[in-house]
Design brief:
Chain lengths: 630, 335
């Protein structure tokens, strides 16, 4: 069987014979509850166990923008989705096949995503009239037929958890907090997973609170045992281990990977990194993470605002550190003037934009790819910066390293685009050896080298980079600033010819980075095709799966992915022009499509979506077929 | 040993382009005369500025210099100082740059006690953009942007600094060459952030705005040169002084009526900012304008704090090992 939804209804008929175990290729499960219900925790424990078991997996949490939205309302629902499989995986799953809903609001908020014939496990204790009303239900969905397309298993989770913990001397509130462990135990049984990793985790986590540890342990076991004995669940499922490349793995989110990349940059460059940051969703994790690892040579500065955050990073770069600032769209808007200063002063700087839905405050916790124009063009004047985009959570590690390499080598700012989907989503990472990572070569100019005078804007012939001089270096005192510079001397100049020359230098310098970025790779070339899917950033996985699914239906298309948007890989024009139909799916209204058309005079067909959600593979398949008339 | 510098060593070969008669010239001179006396290698100085007439300053100094963007110099200077604590970092700013667009950064640079020296050239007008009202322009004053009189109340720079918990505040003026140099020197030696308001005449757009204070003929009666540990005497004939009266207010008294012992003794280290606030607040004609270092208290600097927390953290943390860090957390191995 490929999926749970393929299972015949008969399997789900309560019976009193031996429970059956069915094998499936892959599962997508979503845990959903009130933000206080501990669903993120349940989800991450399930993930951990699944990773240790050896499945390929990807996850996506979904939390409300408000920290404490009113309990029981749809606005307060928090979810965590895991997609695990016995073969390779590129997305956290389109449609969950299993939904664990801890209250009516969680059901209401998530039911529209559930695959037909999907399995719903709900906490029946919470389906009171008051809760149904809070969730906005006019009638009880369990009785009005609205769930008839699904398989529903009602479990009195609250009652059973309290019952399991009745002998413990802790408050009812603390007992109720263990509901998530009951649900988790039940889910572990459903997918034939071991309790051991979670039991060990509980012991460690609550080492100083033995009563709470005991409560969590009992609830977890109770959930598992209940599932094992109840007639309500006659069947459970098994997903075999994936065949993974040998190595050591860990599960990692995009923001964690990015932060580790920054730490690695400090080690690989043997240069201090300076992070200037201001709290903003969904980028703040980077600030939090790096603040814990200052011993790696990371200075972390929580600035008074987004502007000060980038300015301090520029100051640090000017002083010889690797300056970086991390933010999201609204913060990016505030930083644009300072980013322009870095362009003019030709200093190395990495600016991370973990994109969220916009405009304005927009959708703080939801992903979108609509800040591409902002990254490319959101500054006054001709102001080119390098623009790099991460394609997966793990890729955030490698791309931030690359961003530093480019920034330092070419003495230019680099904008790295991530998004809320990559930031919080996770996948397994086959860990690299440090020796496999490319070094970051930092070279300061330290002497006059027999020249008559120091020229702060003298350029390297190959890279066009100007020298990086640390203030404090004797004999190389000089002044820089935001006014137009005279070629070579760096003196203020309003000369028309000089201005034109400098504008071109700044542009050309970014273009020269092509020498350091890989060429576009085309996927799916086993079968010929005159259709090319072009993506950038986090939609890589969905486009990949869409292409594979189309191939299974006999529709062959090719795929390429831009990790570098400015400059573009050197073979971009050639690749694009070798296809009759070029389709560009992106989470905006066609920004990259516009850039491609403008750059290469090649007509492309955009597939756009702005729902604050990643692409679903289904949606892509459907829309690609429509375009191709299939 | 550090080379013995002269004023000339600190002058860059850039032609100075302020309007003839601008107060900025003498400030530049005062700085160029003071730095050689500090015994610091020239390459250790960094001048960072924002936007405005005053912010052209770094171009004229033969040191490291960074002419940045409007209002943001304190934030950039903060990054420079954290990244390289060995540098002597000076921020050159004006009333518009520091108190309007950059108000937030001044507040935070000062409250953090970042070890940088902020020189605010206060000419009570926007000069570079040709004569609009600034945050320190008098109420009711007619300027290009306020032809019927400025409707906004002005702010006093030292009040902002005190309110921001600055550990060092001082005032001087472009026409007080020797005094300026003394104040600059004290700022350099203060361990922590310093904030100096320099009254500066904009010859073109606000000429004579400080005449009622600094005009040579009346100056001695209109300013008081504060000195730490000294009673507060002033006046052309040193015949006046400041005391605290029964209401707890500052009062100008005649030394014919009172003795020097009745006067307030200046204490820059007084932790209570109350008297410092009253001194900074004084304005002619009722009071003399206070000149000199008003407050200089000892507090840990931002750099010291950062280094301390990093050190404490490093002592508790495991020895840095990138490979180990990458392989930390819950890992699993596939054979
Ligand atoms: S406009 Fe005023 S402040 Fe600016 S240079 Fe001229 S005199 Fe000086």
């Amino acid at each position: 069987m490929k999926s749970i939804v393929d299972a015949p209804d008969s399997l789900f008929q309560p019976n009193n014979h031996e429970k059956s175990v069915e094998e499936v290729d892959q599962v997508t499960i979503r845990f959903a509850g009130d933000s206080g219900d501990g669903m993120q925790l349940a989800g991450s424990r399930f993930t951990s166990t699944t990773a240790l078991f050896g499945n390929e997996l990807a996850t996506l949490p979904d939390f409300p923008a408000e920290i404490r939205a009113p309990a029981g309302t749809v606005a307060g629902v928090s979810g965590y989705q895991i997609h695990f499989s016995k073969s390779s995986i590129h997305t956290p799953g389109d449609q969950p096949e299993v939904l664990v809903a801890m209250n009516p609001a969680a059901l209401k908020a998530n039911i529209k995503d559930l695959a037909p014939h999907g399995l719903i496990i709900l906490n029946s204790d919470t389906f009171t009239e008051a809760n149904l009303k809070k969730a906005g239900y006019e009638s009880d969905p369990r009785e009005d037929g609205s769930l008839q397309n699904f398989r529903v298993v009602e479990v009195p989770i609250t009652k059973l958890t309290r019952e399991a913990l009745k002998d413990l001397d802790i408050s009812d509130k603390d007992k109720d907090r263990c509901k998530n462990m009951f649900a988790l135990g039940l889910s572990f049984w459903m997918f034939d997973r071991s309790l051991t990793p979670t039991l060990e985790w509980i012991e460690k986590k609550f080492a100083s609170k033995p009563e709470i540890a005991k409560a969590n342990t009992l609830a977890l076991r109770a959930g598992y045992n209940f599932a094992d004995t109840t007639e309500l669940l006659p069947v459970h499922f098994k997903v075999e281990k994936a065949e993974l490349e040998p190595g050591t793995y860990r599960n990692i989110t995009g923001n964690e990977a990015l932060s580790l990349g920054v730490i690695a940059a400090a080690s690989l460059s043997k240069t201090g990194v300076f992070l200037g940051a201001y709290p903003i969703t969904p980028a703040s994790d980077i600030l939090h993470y790096l603040a814990r690892y200052t011993e790696y040579g990371i200075s972390v500065f929580q600035a008074e605002d987004e502007i000060a955050a980038i300015c301090a990073a520029i100051g640090a770069s000017y002083a010889g550190s690797l300056g970086i600032t991390a933010t999201s769209g609204p913060g990016m808007a505030l930083k644009s003037e300072a980013l322009n200063l870095a362009v003019m002063a030709e200093l190395p700087l990495v600016v991370v934009n973990v994109q969220r839905g916009g405009p304005s405050t927009g959708l703080p916790t939801k992903p979108e790819q609509a800040d591409l124009f902002q990254a490319m063009y959101g500054r006054n004047g001709e102001s080119p910066v390098a623009v790099v985009a991460a394609r997966s959570p793990v890729d955030c590690f490698y791309k931030v390293l690359k961003a530093f390499q480019l920034a330092v080598k070419y003495m230019a700012p680099v904008v790295l685009l991530s998004d809320g989907y990559l930031a919080n989503g996770s996948e397994s990472w086959r860990l690299p050896k440090v020796s496999e990572l490319d070094p970051i070569e930092v070279k300061y100019k330290q002497t006059l080298d027999n020249a008559d005078k120091f020229y702060p804007y003298e350029r390297d012939e190959k890279t066009l980079a100007r020298p990086w001089v640390k203030p404090g270096t004797p004999g190389l005192e000089h002044r820089i600033g935001g006014l137009e510079k005279e070629d070579k001397t760096g003196n203020v100049s309003y000369d028309p010819e000089n201005h034109e020359k400098m504008v071109h230098f700044r542009k050309e310098k970014i273009q020269r980075m092509k020498a350091d970025i890989p060429k576009l790779e085309v996927l799916g070339t086993d079968n010929p095709s005159d259709v090319l899917l072009v993506g950038w950033g986090s939609s890589y996985g969905a486009i990949y799966d869409a292409r594979e699914r189309l191939a299974k239906e006999g529709i062959f298309v090719h795929q390429t992915h831009f990790d570098y948007i400015n400059p573009m890989p050197s073979n971009a024009e050639e690749v694009l022009h070798s296809y009759k139909t070029v389709i560009v799916p992106e989470l905006n209204l066609g920004q990259f499509a516009f850039i491609l058309q403008g750059t290469f005079a090649k007509k492309v067909i955009p597939i756009t979506q702005v729902k604050g959600q990643p692409f679903r593979v289904n949606t892509l398949v459907k829309r690609i077929k429509e375009i191709l008339g299939k | 040993m550090t080379k013995q510098y002269t004023k000339k060593d600190f002058a860059s070969d850039n032609e100075v382009r302020w309007c003839p008669g601008c107060g900025d010239y003498s400030i530049l001179t005062a700085v160029q005369k003071t730095l050689p006396e500090l015994g610091v290698p020239k390459e250790k100085f960094v001048f960072i500025s924002g936007i405005g007439c005053s912010s052209r300053f770094p171009y004229y100094m033969n040191t490291y210099g960074f002419h940045t963007i409007h209002g943001r110099a304190p934030a950039i200077a903060t990054g420079v100082k954290i990244a390289n604590p060995d540098l002597s970092v000076w921020v050159i700013t004006g009333d518009g740059d520091a108190l309007s667009i950059g108000g937030n950064h001044i507040l935070h640079a000062l409250r953090r006690n970042v070890d940088i020296n902020i020189l605010l050239f206060n000419n009570e007008i926007y000069g570079l953009t040709k004569g609009q009202a600034s945050p320190t322009t008098h109420y009711g004053q007619k300027t290009k942007s306020t032809p019927s009189g400025n409707p906004s109340r002005p702010v006093r720079p030292l009040h902002v600094a005190l309110g921001s918990e600055a550990t060092f505040i001082a005032r001087t003026a472009d026409v007080l060459m020797k005094h300026m140099q003394g104040v600059l020197k004290e700022a350099y030696y203060h361990n922590g952030g310093t904030f100096i308001e320099i009254l500066q005449n904009c010859h073109i757009f606000n000429d004579g705005v400080f005449k009622n204070i600094l005009d040579k003929k009346i100056r001695d009666d209109r300013i008081i040169l504060l000195e730490d540990g000294k009673p507060m005497v002033f006046g052309a004939n040193s015949d006046k002084g400041l005391r605290i009266n029964a209401l707890g207010k500052l009062e100008v008294v005649s030394l014919e009526e009172y003795s020097v012992d009745d006067l307030l003794v200046h204490d820059v280290k007084n932790p209570d900012p109350g008297i410092h606030f009253m001194l900074a607040d004084m304005e002619p004609p009722e009071y003399p304008e206070a000149m000199g270092v008003i407050r200089a208290v000892k507090e840990p600097t931002f750099g010291e704090q950062i280094r301390h927390t990093m050190k404490v953290h490093a002592e508790q943390a495991a020895t840095p090992n990138l490979e180990k860090l990458l392989y930390s957390g819950e890992t699993w191995t596939v054979e």
